[in-house]
């Protein structure tokens, strides 16, 4: 019994160690001589295994923070560390490889390729990463589609799926590399209320299985269901 408890405690400690650490993150966008400070010195730490909602008015810097954490954009100043890796120091090629293996991203408008089937869309990250033998990729993608409830629609094109089903494909695609971190940028923003609730329950289930889930939302009711809510205003964290 003691041995079992110590193993469980070790797992718990591992999950609760900081996964995301932003220190003094500044992001300034420049257009000609004009400057727009999107982030003004953000300090933010998120532990592994947390489910965190990021809220704030339009233009507050929510999506910019997500872009920092995923390596889609780089800070003007400060540092971004994810799972022990300071990603703002990586080259674009290194970032692409890192992102493919460590982060699953779910977008508001699904961003599925219209000429590919659900299975082929769910396979895309594996095809890009090329770390898994081609013969194994279909099985992994099919398993992930089964997890999100689309096991019977592997060969359907996006146009043959509802909005909720397309978002499920997007979540299956995000799971392709079995990342520790799932990022959602308004992942339920283009769905009706009932379908949005179903999508949230799916993200919650992934969180319960150990994934760290971080999502931006304008829906305060949906945000309140997260274990932690971070409020952004004028490029700063103003509440947690």
Descriptive notes:
It is a single chain. This protein has helices at 2-16, 62-70, 92-102, 118-129, 134-147, 163-174, 193-208, 220-223, and strands spanning 18-31, 34-47, 51-55, 77-82, 85-86, 103-107, 181-185, 212-216, 228-233, 236-239. The protein has 240 residues and is an alpha/beta fold. The strands form two sheets. A six-stranded mixed β-sheet has the order 6-7-8-3-9-10, with helices on both faces. A four-stranded antiparallel β-sheet has the order 2-1-4-5. Strand 7, helix 7 (193-208) and strand 8 (212-216) form a beta-alpha-beta unit.
Strands, helices and their partners?
Layout (H helix, E strand, L loop, with lengths): L1 H15 L1 E14 L2 E14 L3 E5 L6 H9 L6 E6 L2 E2 L5 H11 E5 L10 H12 L4 H14 L15 H12 L6 E5 L7 H16 L3 E5 L3 H4 L4 E6 L2 E4 L1
Parallel strand pairs: 3-8, 3-9, 6-7, 7-8
Antiparallel strand pairs: 1-2, 1-4, 4-5, 9-10
Helix pairs in contact: 4-5, 4-6, 5-6, 6-7
């Amino acid at each position: 019994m003691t041995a079992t408890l110590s193993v469980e405690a070790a797992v718990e400690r591992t999950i609760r160690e900081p996964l995301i650490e932003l220190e003094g993150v500044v992001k300034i966008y420049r257009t000609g001589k004009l400057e727009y400070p999107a982030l003004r010195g953000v300090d933010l730490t998120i532990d592994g295994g947390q489910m965190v909602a990021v809220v704030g008015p339009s233009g507050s810097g929510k999506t910019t923070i997500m872009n920092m954490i995923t390596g889609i954009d780089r800070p003007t100043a400060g540092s971004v560390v994810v799972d022990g890796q300071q990603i703002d120091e990586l080259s674009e090629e290194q970032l692409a490889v890192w992102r493919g293996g460590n982060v699953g991203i779910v977008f508001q408008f699904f961003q599925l390729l219209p000429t590919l089937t659900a299975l082929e869309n769910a396979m895309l990250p594996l095809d890009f990463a090329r770390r898994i033998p081609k013969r194994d990729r279909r099985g992994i993608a099919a398993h992930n589609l089964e997890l999100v409830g689309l096991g019977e629609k592997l060969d359907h094109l996006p146009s043959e799926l509802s909005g909720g089903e397309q978002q499920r494909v997007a979540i299956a695609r995000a799971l392709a590399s079995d990342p520790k971190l799932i990022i959602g940028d308004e992942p339920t923003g283009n769905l009706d209320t009932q379908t949005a609730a179903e999508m949230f329950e799916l993200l919650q289930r992934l969180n319960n299985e150990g994934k760290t889930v971080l999502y931006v939302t304008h829906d305060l009711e949906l945000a309140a269901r997260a274990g932690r809510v971070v409020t952004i205003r004028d490029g700063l964290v103003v509440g947690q």
